[in-house]
Each structure stands twice: as structure tokens, then as C-alpha cells.
Description:
Elements: H1 20-23, H2 29-48, E1 55-59, H3 70-77, E2 82-84, H4 95-100, H5 103-106, H6 110-122, E3 129-133, H7 135-145, E4 151-155, H8 168-178, E5 186-187, H9 191-197, H10 204-214, E6 218-219, H11 220-228, E7 250-255, H12 263-271, E8 279-284, H13 297-311
Helix pairs in contact: 8-9
Amino acid sequence: MDPRWTAGGVASTCGAGKPSSQRAHGITDTYKEQLGADLFALTRAARREPMNPDTIVLIHGFWVTPRSWEQWKAHYEQQGYRVLTPAYPGFEVEVEALNADPTPIENLSVPAVIDHLTDVIGGLERPPILMGHSAGGVFTQLMLDRGYGAVGVAINSAPTEGVPVVPLSQLKSTFPVLRTVGRKKAAGFTLEQWRYAFTNTFTEEESRALYQRYHIPASVRVLWGSALATLEPGHQDTFVNYDNDDRPPLLFISGGEDHLMPPSVQRSNAKHYKSNTMTEVKEYPGYAHLLPAQKGWEQIADDALSWAVAHAR
């Protein structure tokens, strides 16, 4: 304890040698000045110290909406976090409405999503934890590269520009949609196609229920743009600077049985980063693409959050 303070909270040396009427005030002007200087120094140091994130932003992927994060949102809110699940522009309506009228999906563009996420994340007081699933993993990487967020987790992420790995299961998953180019602007999966691409480790009943609750079409134009990004000259919409030393730490989480974005895609994407910042990959055997809804998701959600909190900056 500072020897200037007594158990009663008044400095024992305050006003020494002064009349009792002056000592009754407790603290001398000189000590007030010193105390003020100390508090100012502490406040200034606190401003320099990074604060732990108090917000988690969950970014959804294609063929689903923010509804796909419903369990993770509730799980993190129960732990005291503010959880945001921003929809792509025009996706603020329910799944049923987008299936009935896919116009917002047809009009979707990557820059529009980035602009919207910039508004959401940039308006927060503290840099948040970013988590993205599938195409949301790409948007997580894009936002981190642009300096938004304290840390990122990409779950079964689609690849950013320059990742050439295209496993056969990925081709089989996406071909039914990609082949509609020129005929459709938005295309979805049949239940059978959904089960192969998203829920191949789920029961038939689980797969059907999730299809009815989450599935919507995806933008054929955006999908083709992402697929051809590596082949097109110059930087495309999904370009990130793999040498960006200022990018916050990033964890790739990969489901070992994912057909749509297999582990080889996650590993290749992670290896492209050459910057002096943390990039890790963690694989969970037995998990499909729709990992956030698969039995046992709670442990993965907790693992993701623990890693994020430990590495946030």
C-alpha cells in the first residue's frame, strides 16, 4: 500500500504541520496535482492497450442466409457477447421470401457485400471478432485484409483469388449450379444435391429439415466470377494481399468430410499467406460443409471463440 494513505483512505502525510482546519480537507494541493498526473498517465496507457472484442460478427455464405447462424448467435449471446449476423444487401427478408422472389440474389455483387460489411464493422466502437462460413469465409478474409476486425475465423471457406485447388467433390457439388449460366441468374440445389454438397454426414431427415429451413438459390454470376478469378488478368473481386503483415490473425476451420470446400482448399488458401502474421488451420474429422448446424457444433464454436480471444489484437 502507498504509505501516504491510511486505512481510512486519507493520506497520512497530508497537511502535516498545518492547522487542523486545513488538514481536515485530507489532500494537499500538491498531492492533488500528483494524483491527477498519475490518473492521466494510467488513462493514457489504458487507451494504448487493446481492448478485448465485445462483438462477434457472423458472416453467412451462399445458398443460405443469416438464419444459418441462429444456434451460434444464441450460443455466443449467452456468453455475454453482442452478436451481429449481417445479411447481404437485399437478403434481410426471410428464406421463404427469397425463394419466392430471388431478385436480390440475382442482383448480388461482391463489392456490394464488402461495402455493406464495411459499414457494419466500421461503425463499431471496438474491432470485432469476424467469423465467416463458406463464402462468408472469403468475406472474412477480405475484411481482415482491409483492416477491419481484431481477428478472423474462416469456416469451410471458399477460396480467395489465386487458390487453384479444385477437388473433384467440389466440381460435383457446384456443377449443377454453374451449368445454368446463360439460363438463370440465381440457381439453387435440389434436396439430393444439397445433401451431397452441404449435409453428406447428416441423416436424411436432418438434411431435409435443414434444406427447408436454410436453403436459397445462389448468384450464378458471382459464382462464375469467383471460379474464374484465378484465370482472369489483374485483381478480381476476391483478391487479398497475401503479404499483408498488418492483417489480423486468421484461423481456418475445416470439416474433414466437406464436399463443397474440402480440407485441401483450406490448406491451400492458408499456405498462400506469406505475411508475418498468424495463419492456422484446424480440421475436424467427420464434419460436412454445413458444420455450424452439425451435431457437436458447440465444441467447435467454443474452440473458435477461444482461439479468437487468445489472438485478437
